[in-house]
Amino acid sequence: MTRRPPLTPLAQSLPSTVPFVGPETQERAAGRPFRARLGANENGFGPSPRVIEAIGSAAHHVWKYGDPESSDLRAALASEHGVKPENIVVGEGIDGLLGLVARLYIEPGTPVVTSLGGYPTFNYHVAGFGGRLVTVPYAGDYENLEGLCEAAIAENAPLVYLSNPDNPMGTWWEAGEVQRFIESLPETSMLILDEAYGETAPASALPHFEPDRPNVLRMRTFSKAYALAGMRCGYVIGEPETIRAFDKIRNHFGMPGVTQAASLAALQDKAYLHKTLERVSACRDRLAAIAAANALTSIPSATNFVAIDCGGRATAEAVMQGLLERDVFVRKPATPGLDRCIRVSVGPDDEIDVFEAAFAEALAAAHNRR
Amino acid sequence: MTRRPPLTPLAQSLPSTVPFVGPETQERAAGRPFRARLGANENGFGPSPRVIEAIGSAAHHVWKYGDPESSDLRAALASEHGVKPENIVVGEGIDGLLGLVARLYIEPGTPVVTSLGGYPTFNYHVAGFGGRLVTVPYAGDYENLEGLCEAAIAENAPLVYLSNPDNPMGTWWEAGEVQRFIESLPETSMLILDEAYGETAPASALPHFEPDRPNVLRMRTFSKAYALAGMRCGYVIGEPETIRAFDKIRNHFGMPGVTQAASLAALQDKAYLHKTLERVSACRDRLAAIAAANALTSIPSATNFVAIDCGGRATAEAVMQGLLERDVFVRKPATPGLDRCIRVSVGPDDEIDVFEAAFAEALAAAHNRR
C-alpha cells in the first residue's frame, strides 16, 4: 500500500461531506432542470437593477484584488446600523463567517450549544474543528431559549448558536425575549445570533445593537432579502476586540471587489428592498393560503420561506419526494417533530403556480400510498 | 475587568495581522490614488471582453447560490489539463486553498518546510494552525530545491511549499528539475506546488500532471494570467483521495456563480490569453530595459513581474519609498539577500511610463541621500 502524507487525526476522522446537496447536483442526476427553485431559501425576486448595474461596472476592475478591509461597505453598514466600522467584519457569507468563529473558539472537545435541528452548516463547522455539539430540542416550533441558556451554563460552553428568525421553521422571538436570553447567558459564552433573515422579520424581533458587549456576534447577510446568495457576502457585528480577532485568521483578500460593489449597491437601494419585503410578505401569505386550501396548516414565518405542516414525517417525506419528481425543488427538516413539515421558499408567482399544482398532486399521491 | 468568551489558546496567541497591506489602505492614508498600480502582481491588461460579458450575464442569476461542485468549471479544467474532474477542487483563490491545506495537515507543532522569503500568505496560514515553519534560504535568487528536500526529510515534514515560477523573485526551475525534486521527497511529504504564474512561464517549466501521485498538490489561479484577481478563483490538481479531503472542511457554497462563469469564460478565450502572454512578455522586457537604462540589472522572470536589483537593501528600500511618495505602488522582498530588489508588476504602457519617470527620480533621490 502506498504511504501518504498524513492528514491530522481530526481531519482524518471527518467524513467527506456536504451540509446540503446543491440543486444543480439534483438537476444533473435527474437530467433536467427544476421548474421551480424553492428549496434553498434563495430570493427568486432577484436583486435590485442597481445591483446588476454595479456588477457590470465592477466587472471592469476584476483584475484588481478587492479591498481587504471592505472599507466602503463597512462604512455604509456602520452607518446603516448605528455602529462603527470597527464593529464590523465582512466575510464570505454567514457560512464562511461561522467557520471562522468556530476556528476562533473551538478545540477538540469544546462544548458548543445549539438547537437540535438547527442550521446544519454551523454543525458542520463545529464538527470540523472537533467541537462537541450539545443540542437542545425545539419547544414546539420555536428554538428553546431557556433550554439553550441552561445548556450553556451547564456546559460552560464558549459558543451558543441561535437563529432568529429561525431556520428551518421560520418562527421568531421578539426582541425583548432575545435580549433577556442574551443577558441570562454567562459572560464567557459567546452568542452567535444568526440574523440571516433579519430584514424579512418584523423590526420588533431585532434587539438594539450593543456595540460594546463582548459576548454577542450578530450575523447578517446579503443572501436573503438582498437576493445576493450567489455573491457570498455576510457580515458580523460585534465588539471591536472580538471583531479584530477575525483578522488573525481570515482570508484577507477573500472578498471580491465585485461582491463588495454589489452589496453596497444593494444596501443603498432602500426602495427596492422595501418592494422585496412586500413581495416576500405577500408570497408567505399565498403559501399559507395554498396550505389551507389543501386542509393543512403552515407555521407563521418571519423569513423568506414557509414551513407547511403535512401532518406527519412519512407524509411530509412523500410530499417532498413527490415535488422533486415533479421538478419542484423544496427541502424539509429531518429532526423528529420538525420533520412533519416541508419548507418552501418564497418566489415569483409563476414558480409558486408550479408549486401549487405539483403540491396538490404530490399530496394526493402521498395519501393514496397510505 | 469584564470576562470574555475564551478564544482557543492558539487563536489567543496569534497576532491580528494582515500578510499584505492593501493598496486601497495606502491610498486612504495618502489621501490620493496611485497613478500606477504595479505592486500586487495583478494583471492590469485586464480580462477578456468575453469575461466581462459573462459577468454581466451571470449577474442576473446572483440570487442563486453557486453550484457547490463548480461542475462546469471543473469539467473544463479537467479537459484543459488532461485530468479528471475528481482530480480538481476549486476554491477561493490559492490563498483560500492554502488555508484549507494547512488545516488538513497541520496541528500545533507540525513542521512545515518553505523557503526563507517565500510566500507570506502561506506562512500566515501555517502559523494560523500552529505549524512550525522550517525555512530554507534561497540559493542566490532561486528557491533551493536540494535544501528544501533535505529539510523535508530531516523534519519528516508533512507539508513542503514551493512556488514555481517563484514569487517574489520571478525565477523558475525547469520541469526536469521540479520532477526530480518531487521524486526525491518522502512519500509522506505533501508538496504544495504553487503555480500561480504557471501560464506566464515557459511550458518547459511545468512538469506533466501525475493524477495518481498522492503527495503533490498543484495550485493554479485565475488571478494572474487571466486577470481575475478580484474574483478569487483558484484550483488544486491532485490525486482524487486527497482532493476529496477538501470536502471535509471547505465552505461548500463558497464559490459565487459569477466567479464560476467568469473563470469558465476566461479559460475558453485562448486567443485573448495568448495576447495577454505576449503583452506580459513585452512588458517584462521593457521593465528590464528600464532597469538597464538606469545602470541596474533585473532578474530574468517567468512571472508577470520583474525584480529589479537596486544594489543593496537600503537603496532598494529608499527607491520603493520614493516610488510610493510619487504615487507608484510597488512592493519589495524583506528577506536578506532578496531585499536588494524592488518588485514591479507588468501593466499597461501608460502605467509603465509613470513608473519609468518616477523610478529615475526615486533612484536619484536615493543616491543623493547617501
UniProtKB/TrEMBL annotation, chains A, B:
<dbReference type="GO" id="GO:0000105">
    <property type="term" value="P:L-histidine biosynthetic process"/>
</dbReference>
<keyword id="KW-0808">Transferase</keyword>
<keyword id="KW-0028">Amino-acid biosynthesis</keyword>
<keyword id="KW-0368">Histidine biosynthesis</keyword>
<feature type="domain" description="Aminotransferase class I/classII large">
    <location>
        <begin position="38"/>
        <end position="354"/>
    </location>
</feature>
<dbReference type="Pfam" id="PF00155">
    <property type="entry name" value="Aminotran_1_2"/>
</dbReference>
<comment type="similarity">
    <text>Belongs to the class-II pyridoxal-phosphate-dependent aminotransferase family. Histidinol-phosphate aminotransferase subfamily.</text>
</comment>
<dbReference type="GO" id="GO:0004400">
    <property type="term" value="F:histidinol-phosphate transaminase activity"/>
</dbReference>
<comment type="pathway">
    <text>Amino-acid biosynthesis; L-histidine biosynthesis; L-histidine from 5-phospho-alpha-D-ribose 1-diphosphate: step 7/9.</text>
</comment>
<dbReference type="InterPro" id="IPR050106">
    <property type="entry name" value="HistidinolP_aminotransfase"/>
</dbReference>
<feature type="region of interest" description="Disordered">
    <location>
        <begin position="1"/>
        <end position="30"/>
    </location>
</feature>
<keyword id="KW-0663">Pyridoxal phosphate</keyword>
<dbReference type="InterPro" id="IPR015421">
    <property type="entry name" value="PyrdxlP-dep_Trfase_major"/>
</dbReference>
<dbReference type="InterPro" id="IPR015422">
    <property type="entry name" value="PyrdxlP-dep_Trfase_small"/>
</dbReference>
<dbReference type="InterPro" id="IPR004839">
    <property type="entry name" value="Aminotransferase_I/II_large"/>
</dbReference>
<dbReference type="GO" id="GO:0030170">
    <property type="term" value="F:pyridoxal phosphate binding"/>
</dbReference>
<keyword id="KW-0032">Aminotransferase</keyword>
<protein>
    <recommendedName>
        <fullName>histidinol-phosphate transaminase</fullName>
        <ecNumber>2.6.1.9</ecNumber>
    </recommendedName>
</protein>
<dbReference type="InterPro" id="IPR001917">
    <property type="entry name" value="Aminotrans_II_pyridoxalP_BS"/>
</dbReference>
<dbReference type="InterPro" id="IPR015424">
    <property type="entry name" value="PyrdxlP-dep_Trfase"/>
</dbReference>
